[in-house]
Structures are given as C-alpha cells and as structure tokens.
Design brief:
The protein is of the alpha+beta class. It contains two helices and five strands, in the order αβββαββ. Strands 1, 2, 3, 4 and 5 form a five-stranded antiparallel β-sheet that branches.
C-alpha cells in the first residue's frame, strides 16, 4: 500500500489520535507548506501540533505517529510554555 502524503490524510490521522487519546491531547494544529527556497516549488507540508503539556510523549509514540503521517521526521519544541510537535512530510 502506498503511503498517503496529503493534508486530508494528516487531518484524518489527527482525528484518530484525538479519538484514541482524548480531544484535549492536541490543543491546536496547522499545516503550512514546505517550500524549496531555491526553486520556489512546494516540496511537502508540515504538521505543527500544539500538545497538552501534562502528558507523556514517548519516542515510541511519536515514531508511531510519524509512521501514520508518512512523515520523514519530527521535531519537538517548547516556546512560551507551549509544547509543539512538528512532523515534516515531503513529497517524493
């Protein structure tokens, strides 16, 4: 089965995560485009999720979500007491 790399698929994965772990686990999300600065072409998109900070997010869990999103990598950041997990999905 080919991996689906669309924002619609990512939104379905987010809905499934919320259904499994509770609506409040993902407080907010957005999906900006990834762009090659040399060519101006869209190369994929990111899934930036603001997470509930009073939960534990293991490497196994984050890697499972990475696989479900068909993402290449994920990053974790904290800014102004906001925990964000960003997945980057690049088109092939």
């Amino acid at each position: 089965m080919a991996k689906v790399k669309t924002t619609e698929h990512a939104a379905e994965v987010i809905s499934a995560i919320k259904a499994e772990y509770g609506e409040e686990i993902i407080k907010d999300y957005h999906m900006p485009s990834l762009c090659d600065i040399n060519t101006g072409k869209t190369t994929g998109f990111a899934i930036v999720m603001t997470m509930k900070s009073k939960s534990a997010y293991t490497d196994a869990l984050l890697n499972d979500w990475k696989q479900k999103f068909a993402a290449d990598l994920y990053q974790i950041s904290v800014s102004h007491n906001r925990l964000e997990v960003t997945y980057k999905v690049r088109f092939e």
